[in-house]
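Quick one:
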Amino acid sequence: MKFVLYAAALVAAVIDTHAATAATLSEIYGFAGGPDGLYPASIQVNAKAIFGTTLRGGTAGLGTVFRIDRATGMKTTLHSFGGGADGSNPSGAVVLSGGFLYGTTSAGGTGGDDRGTLYRVSLSTGAETVLYSFGFAGGEMPQGGVTRAGSALYGTTSMGGAGTGRGTVFRYDLTTGIESMFHAFAGIADANDSISSLLAYKGALYGTSIGGGSLNYGTVFRVALGTGAETVLHSFTGPDGRNLQAPLTAYAGLLYGTTVQGGGSDLGVLFSMDPVSGTAATLITFGSNTAGASPTGRLVYANGGLYGTTALGGGGSGLAFRLNLADSTETPVLSFPPGTEAFGLVYSSGSFLGIDFVGGSASSGSIFQLVP
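Output:
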């Protein structure tokens, strides 16, 4: 393990009137590429360890599942994907449940379809089981991973589905082991091309899509857990954002999310939304009287605010920011070092853990800790 500490009283470069507050950034583990893993894609944490996936690397170069001991920083590769029926290129959110890690691969599967898999890996032995191989009719290329609600896992596919082929919402029953297509997106006006994980909230699943909606600029959609009935809650129009790639966050009765583009400078927005009516309010327009641009990853609540990351701004490689929910003001927390591509914050024990997709000590990606 290599430990790198970056000073943190950094100044955001997008708007010079916003100075970053004191924070520290440290590398917990830097991937070495090759068999060690390359391009971390997701993480989940418990009290003892960080579990996650890399998009590539491993013995076959097709991705890994890993464990990092939080006390020692020691990293263990639990599984290397082999391609074909085993699946390849794990992506999207993972779920820890009952001694297993559940996730999806965007490629591989049985029958030579190469359309992705749903898998589980034993946390104690590293043994991997492919639970389902996707095909066109039921959806293909899951990229958002899985979310647990009750006794089932739910996720989206970015393509496939009966009829239009614009993606699906799928369900996997953990008790019976049966997978089913929960909803097939209906076409351009409907949500389509969803690559983010779903949010389970008050009896429904909420998601975002890159395309679809009245102008094909993306949507927020809701799927009822009881019936699978889907509703497009909001169609984005450009000034209120476009191109939604990050999952939603729920807090105090509202949904919060970001768009990669749109807004006055076309550099993304942060919005709140009523989960019943779909009424949206723009809280931050990035690149216009604010620090940072092109927000990435899920927003995380901590200490009265929402924290997130941007791909641009800061020193050029983006920054971590905080939205104060009391007055909707934004404050830069830390500018990331050159070569960083940060996302995937998780709050744990007073600090944030996150993913640097391409940076780190070996430029193969890393897991970092951010203490605001």
